Amino acid sequence: MKIDIVAVGKLKEKYLQQGIEEYLKRLSPYTKVHIAEVADEKAPDNMSDANMQEVKRKEGERILSHISKDSYVITLEINGKMLTSETFADKLDKLATYGKSKITFVIGGSVGISEDVQKRSDMALSFSKMTFPHQMFRMILLEQVYRAFRIMRGEPYHK
């Protein structure tokens, strides 16, 4: 299985970079993970709906340029489907079993994901009804992917 993560914005926080590196190292025996950062669009504090749609559209074009045609796309959205860690592991296992060995996770920017990216998505996934900083969410996603591989292999991992 090959996993790509396409994320809006540059990760600057050293502590998050270190956490991400740790999970990438832990995942290396199970899968190859590639993270692509796409530039975020400058967004004024008091945006109109039209401004927000334009920001999403521009970020969406950048995101789509990093998604291969044969990839199964999972967008991370607050209104997506919520799964337990075990169900998430089962989903990844079934994707691999049925020939979807390339998975792309999409982490949108601060105003969300464009309609075009949502249309390309095969599954919308939510980890919570809460909102998380998109920079921090990369590490949360990697931890859950690592947990899923441990579950799939029947290996111990804290609950």
Automatic annotation (TrEMBL):
PANTHER family: METHYLTRANSFERASE, RIBOSOMAL RNA LARGE SUBUNIT METHYLTRANSFERASE H. CDD domains: RlmH-like (cd18081). Its main location: cytoplasm. HAMAP family: 23SrRNA_methyltr_H. InterPro entries: Alpha/beta_knot_MTases, RlmH-like, tRNA_m1G_MTases_N. Pfam families: SPOUT_MTase. S-adenosyl-L-methionine binds at residues 76, 108, 127-132. Gene3D superfamilies: 3.40.1280.10. Homodimer. Specifically methylates the pseudouridine at position 1915 (m3Psi1915) in 23S rRNA. Keywords: Cytoplasm, Methyltransferase, rRNA processing, S-adenosyl-L-methionine, Transferase. Its EC number is 2.1.1.177. It catalyses: pseudouridine(1915) in 23S rRNA + S-adenosyl-L-methionine = N(3)-methylpseudouridine(1915) in 23S rRNA + S-adenosyl-L-homocysteine + H(+). This is Ribosomal RNA large subunit methyltransferase H. It comes from Lentibacillus halophilus. Belongs to the RNA methyltransferase RlmH family. It is found in: Cytoplasm.
